[in-house]
Amino acid sequence: MNDKEQTKIRIEQLQQWLRQENFDFFLLPRSDRYGQEFLPSCNERIAWLTGFTGSSGFVVISPSACVLFSDKRYSIQMGAQTPDNVTFHDGAQMTLEQYLQETVTQNARIGFPQWQLSIQLQQKFADIISGNGATLHAILQNPIDLFWHNQSGQGRPAMPLSLPHLLDENDCGLDASAKLTLLRQRLKQHNCDGNVISDLSMIAWLLNLRGSDIPYAPVNIAMLLVRQDDAHLLMNPRKITPLLTQYFATHKITLHDLSNLNSFIEKSSGETYLLDEQKTPYHVQLLFDQYQVKSLYHPQPLLRQRAIKNKAEIAAIKNAHIIDGVAMVRFLHWLEQQSETSELLIAEKLEQFRCQHDFYRGASFGTIAGFAEHGAIIHYRATPQSNQYCKQQDGNLLLLDSGGHYLNGTTDITRTIPYGIINNQQIKADYTLVLKAHISLAKQVFPHGTNGAQLDALCRAPLWNYQRNYPHGTGHGVGMYADIHEGPYHISPNADKVIEAGMLFSNEPGLYRTGKYGIRIENLIITQVLDLQPLKLPDNNETWLKFDTVTLCPINIDLIDKNYLNHDDIEWLNDYHQTIWQQLSPYFTDDGLRQYLHHATRKLI
């Protein structure tokens, strides 16, 4: 039985459960109770049920239909991975909200897993179905977990258990006590007695604590309750070492087992807690209702402080990019020497080069290595079935998007690489316009108060001028040895938040021709204040910002059609490559590597 046949049976099994329990619909978000983009394998419920492995998804299932929703990045992948009893939408023709409004019948009973749905989503769905008599029913145990446990042969994986580790405080800028004090000040401003935090990335940042419980995210599975006079960390006690016990005592943090959540909330009866309704599971609100704890819905108060990297964090991030740049150059030199290779081997070799440094702690997301038409699948992941072999003599385009977590920072880089000689003029034009878009954002100066949507448009303009575009945002926030996609600040068409100095973003315009090839060029950039002292007028107090590119890896020159670049574009690229040579060449004593780097960073004339 193949994978699609197996998932088809699982869907039918869940539909039978719906009939037995008299539910007309069941809502299944991809997220788990901890609000992370990446999930431990035991919580990949949509992947288990439908076969779809994308990082964004939502399933609505009824006794007669199974409908999967994601976004445009996954329009091809959804069709390739799911069986024929799954209908899927990428938001272009039908959104989740539209489907529920049009499909939910009068007086329908709708079940949902109360740990997986956030407070905000529960309210959103309640509003959608209001007026037609339909009702939402919170379910404590997700039926998928039961089916998964009872699956013949291979059962549900166990919850991961890894030992936490502390960051070097020289790289953090603020210790845990200082961050907790800042949070308490914010809670006091909101007249709140405490804050329940289930967002693992926020817990990691607040406590300067990292782990490896979740793939591609250096976090520990836990919950944190912060009050004015104390803090309580709920996690598996088997994860606690003597060093951590001492560390937590220093910062007045008490440790509890995760199972103690109910009793702790019960003791808070009559108090008011701040809850981030976008991240907090609806289950927590049910506990608050049960034990008469008051809720104040408000975004996590320190999201802005986390996004604005301090001087110590910026210095650490730049050092991490030197480490990653060395690994990337070693990989690119290796690739150039291969007469034949494959997508899976490329990902394996790049991981090996990154692993050579002691600070490396794993990939920041699954490597995307796609030759030719696979490059047009925005979040493509090679499998043994899809793995494509290519020879240099055939001349293929490779899109390579990868990143790493290091003890001093997180990286994310995309390079579009000619594997062999490519003379296709359309490819060169497309590549150069993507590069021009990338450079336009990298060198952009803008006034304080500019938001992400405005910067997104400025980046797209060089592509728009030639009637080209890309179906994803231009840039996402990046954490300091943390989330590769750190919110809520980003650069995209709907990004209304103001960009501030110290924020770290990706700069990744692209262009995708389905069935042919994909192009993307990505660096990480940090926002900085522009020094205008020599030019500043006495009556002009406006602050201006710019970007500092921190990624250090050559951008391929052989694919460039200079007809699309102006003098400033070429000057930026030459300056960038000169910086790479100055920063990385001291790490290469091998003549072959130095010659490769010198050639890769040569001036474009």
Question: What descriptors fit this protein?
Answer:
alpha+beta, six-stranded mixed sheet, globular, single chain, 19 helices, 605 residues
Describe this structure in words.
The protein contains 19 helices and 30 strands. It is α+β, with helices and mostly antiparallel strands and 605 residues long. Strand 3, helix 3 and strand 4 form a beta-alpha-beta unit. Helix 14 packs across helix 15 and helix 16 packs antiparallel against helix 17. It is globular. The model has no long low-confidence stretch (mean pLDDT 94).
DSSP E strands, number: 30
Structural class category: alpha+beta
Helical amount: 25-40%
Number of helices: 19
Largest sheet, in brief, is: 6 strands, mixed
**Low-pLDDT runs:** none
- Could you tell me the mean pLDDT? 94
End-to-end C-alpha gap:
58 Å
- Trace the largest sheet across and list its strands: 4-3-2-1-5-6
What radius of gyration results from the CA coordinates?
Answer: 25 Å
Name the beta content range: 15-25%
Overall 3D shape: globular
